[in-house]
Amino acid sequence: MYPLGIVTGPETSPDSVLEPVLDRLEAEGSVGVVRPGDPTAERTVYEVGEDGWAAQGEGLDAESALSTVATAHDYGLLVDFPDAAVPQIAVGAVDIEEPAMVAESPQALDLDAVVSTAEAGEPIETLDSLIARVKASPKAELSGAIATFTGRVRAKEDPDDDPTESLTFEKYEGVAETRMAEIEAELTDRDGVYEVAMHHRVGRIERGEDIVFVVVLAGHRDQAFEAVEAGINRIKDEVPIFKKETTVAEEFWVHEREH
């Protein structure tokens, strides 16, 4: 899912930007929206009706809500969350750092450029969104297994180590995506493997957060497990993604330490 933020100045209604952007993006795919509210629920409550559903609860910030939206949508819009780490469209008198697009008014917004701006950014994928993708395979009726791998930021290798605060990943643009797609295709050629989906996040990832996912849809569990193991090993060995580790004591590029 491609995320995009909308931030408006005090003289610009967020809806005056949201509605045309929604209409344009919905011509390309499904869109989920996360916007500020004033929920007061002390319990998590889902309201379900014939025409849709609504929910409220505690403990969910804007970016976590956006990750939830990623499971079933092609685009995700954050409305008036200026500090969110997504490409932002600034409309009106807005003071934010490095917006992806700027327009003086809703009427001045280039809606085709909105689509290209969204799709130029880093997509959001979660384990759930990748599982949903492989389940949608035309060959899903032949499968009896889904196996997954999730890599995360480990705090310590050994109990006496300085704790890791975060990892930062950078990729060789274009080459990394191409190699990942090739690995997915090659694993799918294996006997009994019907669908493979992989994703490696980039940027700063905090301790305890997820980094990389491999999901395999296969006929049987042994085929699924073997393909998952091969997938993560090949990502580490073949995909040009570089890792910087930040501990409480120092910061360093891991590939420089290994050589």
TrEMBL record:
Gene3D superfamilies: Molybdopterin biosynthesis MoaE subunit
Signal peptide from the UniProt entry: none
GO biological process: Mo-molybdopterin cofactor biosynthetic process
EC number: 2.8.1.12
Top-rank EC class of the record's enzyme: transferase
Keyword terms, alphabetized: Transferase
Pfam families given in the database record: MoaE (PF02391)
Alphabetical list of InterPro entries matching this protein: MoaE_sf (IPR036563), Mopterin_biosynth_MoaE (IPR003448)
GO MF: molybdopterin synthase activity
Presence of the UniProt keyword Transferase in the record: yes
Superkingdom field: Archaea
Protein's UniProt name: Molybdopterin synthase catalytic subunit
Originating organism: Halodesulfurarchaeum formicicum
GN (gene name): moaE
